[in-house]
Design goal:
Elements: E1 2-7, E2 18-22, E3 33-34, H1 60-82, E4 94-97, H2 101-109, H3 115-142, H4 166-170
Parallel strand pairs: 1-2, 1-4
Antiparallel strand pairs: 2-3
Helix pairs in contact: 1-3, 2-3
């Protein structure tokens, strides 16, 4: 069975052998869960989409509080799925988990109005990614005998000079 958690544009959810929770761009409707009672297992701070644009440049602390709370809630839910504590997750052998908070952090902190604020934002992003790394390590302890792949849909640094074409590599 599968667990699909937070994948963008997966609304409405498709009945799967397992668990499915819509991600980014899903409306606030019950059709974003399969099975429907999965919603009861989500932590209170689980956010489907933390919109960085809802926070002004002077609302850094409020944004950070929500960013960390949502990240922790998503990882806590993922660990429940791995342990089979969520309906439909009892025999999961494939998980696709998307954490959009890393993207939101970079959008918010890379658009600071001054060079000093931008530099401070870079440090905040680094600390946040260290936090995410610790959460990933916690998950890895639970799945030590699983095959795990981590990837990003894009970065925020300089233009890439090298590329990996996964479709070619898999052939």
């Amino acid at each position: 069975s599968v667990a699909v958690i937070g994948v963008p544009l997966t609304f409405p959810t498709t009945p799967v052998d397992g668990v499915m929770i819509s991600g980014f761009l899903s409306p606030d409707e019950s059709d974003r869960f399969h099975p429907t009672d999965v919603e009861e297992y989500l932590p209170d701070d689980y956010e489907f989409f933390l919109k960085y644009s809802d926070f002004g440049p002077l609302e850094t602390e409020a944004f950070l509080d929500r960013l960390y709370a949502s990240t922790d809630a998503k990882f806590n839910f993922l660990k429940k799925v791995i342990r089979g504590e969520v309906p439909g997750s009892e025999h999961v052998d494939l998980i696709c988990f998307v954490l959009s908070e890393t993207d939101m952090a970079q959008h918010y902190f890379r658009k600071q109005p001054t060079a000093e604020a931008h530099e401070e934002g870079e440090q905040i992003i680094l600390e946040f990614f260290k936090h995410v790394d610790r959460k990933v390590a916690e998950v890895m302890e639970l799945v030590e005998d699983w095959n795990v792949g981590l990837l990003s849909d894009h970065g925020f640094g300089k233009n890439a000079t090298k590329h990996v074409h996964i479709n070619q590599w898999l052939i």
